[in-house]
Amino acid sequence: MIRHLAPALLLALAATAQAQTPGASLESLLDYARSRNPEYAAMRYEAEAAAERIVPAGALPDPKFRTELRDITRMGEQNPSVLPARVGSTRYLLMQDVPWLGKRELKREIAELEAQAAEGRATGTWAELSARIKTAYAQYQYIHHNTALTRELLDLSTRLEKVAQARYAGGLAAQQDVIRAQIEQTGMRTELLSLDNEDRQARARLNTLLARPASAPLEAPTRLRPLPPPAALDAAALEARVRARNPQLFADEAKVRAAEKGRELAYKNRYPDFTLGVSPIQYQGSVKEWELMVELNLPLQQGSRRAQEREAEAMLSAARARLDATANQTLGELEGQRSAFDAARRTEALIATSLLPQADLSFKSALAAYENGKVDFATLMDAQRQIRIARQSRIKAQFEAQMSLAEIERIVGEDL
After folding, report:
1. Is position 197 within any domain?
2. Which of the chain's termini has less CB crowding within 10 Å, N or C?
3. How many domains does the chain have?
4. What are the pLDDT tens digits along the chain (416 aa)?
5. In a domain, 6, yes or no
6. Is residue 281 part of a domain?
7. Is residue 279 part of a domain?
8. CATH code at 334?
9. Domain assignment of residue 159, given as a range
């Protein structure tokens, strides 16, 4: 029975390993990186840590307790003692520091905004990481498709060599035609070696982004990610989404609001903080007196406080300027990538609908004419190269569109 179960178990384990190997789609890589990339995990933990600072920031300080043993010799009548029942009196003091009205709320709000900024940085880290994965995966697909195209054209060149050999055997063509076909095949085999090296490098880059060993296996890409419709890349709509969703802008806006709260807190430091206390006094075995205490600091160092206020104003101005700079840079990058994406998509459409059919028709015509002895082999090879150039140009345009889309989504902060 065990012998019968062993093959099924091996098949199940193989299927599980196959399912756990990413690479067949971009989504599998992103899901893997989201749960395993250490850089993104570190930023998430930092955001969680920042969120945990909110409660302590708005809490009251811990109360303080003091004990004073008075007259421990009882007017010299006894040896010194530290027992409350044997000293002249014992004073217990419980004190609580209380900031000026509104200071605790401002500190809590500042901590909340700093937590939002940390969350924005974590989201920005994921946007950067996902864009790098999308870009590396687009390169991986580009190499994979170029390799498939080169192998297909190598097969075509092999068939053309056979046609040239048949014509040479019949005395209808020169031996040079066969040699040209073989030279073309050698060039393609050399290119396949170069593509194989690029493929290994692309796999290493992707595995590095996934925090996997560089030589870990990856599934071959199955399909290109579909491009969004043109309406999704409208300039005004994209700009609105960037202002609402870009992680860096979100973090900088949170920093501006935190700086505004920091300025308010600096001005509230003109007012004193308090310490409230209650003190029972024990004589021998019983408490016979109670005292209340109010203590406040005197904000007399006006020069120091004015400097702190000017510092808060400068920090606010810096945060606002940084937000403006980030917005200008981000929107400029967006427009550049949007233009590049549009050009790549239009180029790919033009090649698919015009250049490729023309090149294919030219090749078929040249092949028929060569078989009938109407054109030479060089003309046929030129027609084959035109097909190759057209198909490579289409793959390149698809790759450039995927690259630009990845950058646009990084800038927007979400998938389109």
Report:
1. yes
2. N
3. 1
4. 444 444 444 444 344 444 467 777 788 888 888 888 888 889 999 999 999 999 998 888 899 999 998 888 888 788 888 888 888 888 999 999 999 988 999 999 999 999 999 988 998 888 888 899 888 888 888 888 888 888 888 888 887 778 777 777 777 666 777 788 788 888 888 888 988 898 898 888 888 888 888 888 888 887 778 888 887 888 888 888 888 888 889 899 999 999 999 999 999 888 888 999 999 998 888 888 999 999 888 888 888 889 988 999 999 999 999 999 999 998 998 889 889 988 998 898 898 888 888 888 888 888 787 777 777 777 877 887 888 888 888 888 988 888 888 888 888 887 77
5. no
6. no
7. no
8. 1.20.1600.10
9. 42-65+101-273+303-412
